Amino acid sequence: MAGTDHRRAGVSGGPAIILVAPQLGENIGTAARAMMNCGLGDLRLVRPRDGWPSKKAAAASSGAHAVLDEARLHSDVPAAIADLVHVYAATARDRDMVKREVTPRQAAQEMRDYIAAGEACGVLFGPERTGLLNDEVALADTVLTVPLNPAFASLNLAQAVLLVGYEWFAAASAAPAERLRTGQSRRATKDELMRFFEHLEEELDRNGFMRNAEKRPSMVRNLRNLFQRAQCTEQELRTLHGIVTAFAGPRDRDRTAEEAESKSRPSPSR
Fold it and tell me: Are residues 196 and 241 in contact, defined by beta-carbon separation less than 8 angstroms?
């Protein structure tokens, strides 16, 4: 394997690479090879079509077994990104969403700064044939688009991973980008955001705001995109939970009071 020298120290770390419903083991293997080229080690797989582990992936990785051996399998995108704070969705198509958009070069420097501050990052890549679903893109903070020939911007999975990985690797010596100070509270994780989304959407359903079944999916995506752009801290999400509960009316207040009362009761003696 030209270019491989196991006597030299390797580079590892960086953002998570999340492959959503990859179709072929060979594509997972070549993506893992691209990751190892660029010092990336956190590979996450969501519902690979041909199952996991994969002998074809191992054969196509050209020795990137360290990445494949540590790959984690997830049932859906929310589970794969639960521990992350910043998520980028790689897509070449206009999704008709209000979403911040950056190039791999811009994303790489941002991720360098986020990770240096202890805020975990990841990049979502969709299936080879269809790309990411709109609902999956809505779970990301930012869209990542590679500036290529607009008449032929299609990339295979390994090419896309390599482009993002290369910019990550090259950004090591770049100047730090501007960051948002969050005071005493840390930035909310995706798992915390998902729990807020579920709370908000449950109350909106209960109060009839999303009664139009045909429009509901786009309304949910728009709301999620709005709060993703806000880059909420963990404390801000707690405040939003409280606001939703307050606006929900007596049912939630009564339930909260009952729960508090039950917790305050002494345990029965044995």
Answer: yes
- Comparing 97 with 190, the larger pLDDT belongs to 190
Distance CA 24, CA 22 (A): 6
User: What single-letter amino acid sits at 42?
Assistant: D
Q: Are 131 and 93 in contact (CB under 8 A)?
A: yes
Determine how β-strand 86-90 pairs with β-strand 16-20: unpaired
Give the pLDDT score at 30. Answer: 97
Going by C-alpha positions, the residue among 47, 11, 16, 31 that lies closest to residue 189 is: 16
Identify the pLDDT of residue 263. 40
- Measured in whole angstroms, how far is the alpha carbon of residue 6 from the centre of its chain? 32
Residue type, 11: V
Pairing of strands 142-144, 100-102: parallel
Both tokens of residue 10? 């390797």
Q: Per-domain residue ranges for the chain?
A: 16-173, 190-263
Q: What is the pLDDT of residues 116-126, one digit of tens each?
A: 999 999 999 99
Measure the CA–CA gap between 234 and 232, rounded to whole angstroms: 7
Which of these CATH numbers, 1.10.8, 2.60.40, 1.20.120, 1.20.1250, describes 190-263? 1.10.8
Report d(CA 1, CA 213) in Å as an integer. 55
Residue 18, strand partner residues: 44, 124
Superfamily of domain 16-173: SPOUT methyltransferase, trefoil knot domain (3.40.1280.10)
For residue 127, give both structure tokens.
């299936």
The Cα 242–Cα 219 span in angstroms is 22
- Token pair for residue 190? 């995706």
Strands (E), the chain: 16-20, 43-46, 72-74, 86-90, 100-102, 121-125, 142-144
